[in-house]
Amino acid sequence: MAFELPKLGYAYDALEPHIDARTMEIHHSKHHQGYTNNLNNAIAGTELEGKSINDILGNLDMNNGAVRNNGGGFYNHSLFWEVMNPEDRGYLSGDLKDAIEAAYGSKDEFIAAFSKAAATQFGSGWAWLCVHKGGKVEVCSTPNQDNPLMPGVTCGGTPILGLDVWEHAYYLNYQNRRPDYIKAFFNVVNWNEVEKRYAEAK
Ligand code: MN
Questions:
Q1: 170: containing domain
Q2: What letter would DSSP give residue 160?
Q3: Dist. CA 44 → ligand 1 center (Å)
Q4: How many beta carbons lie within 10 A of that of residue 46, not counting itself?
Q5: Distance from the CA of 137 to the center of ligand 1, in angstroms?
Q6: Smaller CB count within 10 Å for the chain: N or C?
Q7: Domain count, the chain
Q8: Is the predicted pLDDT of residue 1 greater than 80, yes or no?
Q9: For position 197, which CATH number holds?
Q10: Would the pTM of this model clear 0.85, i.e. be above it?
Q11: What is the mean pLDDT of residues 57-79?
């Protein structure tokens, strides 16, 4: 079974004004579709064909550039769409709130740490909130389409919140103002989904 571009759970314009419809449409229908197609081409006829994306990334040969870039791109964007929502987002609560406060002191200090990781990732990449076995959470960033599931990548653990800081994610609306885009992202974070992923991963 080839990988398929996941459908968005909301309309392209649903995250406006924080993320504009044109950016969402190009990002999902062109960029994410491209990673999906290129991943399928890269694994066709190899031992990776038919494996889950988590299995592929968790056991990745980091020298396999096509699978690293496109498998990462496929996974990262699939997560990204789901950790945003125009409505019914919930709020930071429960065990995840406790874990974030244990690691960062408060929700605001966590947002500051995550925003700093996103703002200071040089060039293209992602900022992440990861959870380690046992429930401890950690913020990190990765270049390009790498992610914490891959062998030897920065914080490790399971990513439960991710922010795309490639220019294609914000340039149409924010141009060079990446910090404004990062700030806007926190208006559309789907805390219900992040909390669900935390419970599954810890
Ligand atoms: Mn992207």
A1: 20-202
A2: E
A3: 23
A4: 11
A5: 24
A6: N
A7: 1
A8: no
A9: 3.55.40.20
A10: yes
A11: 97
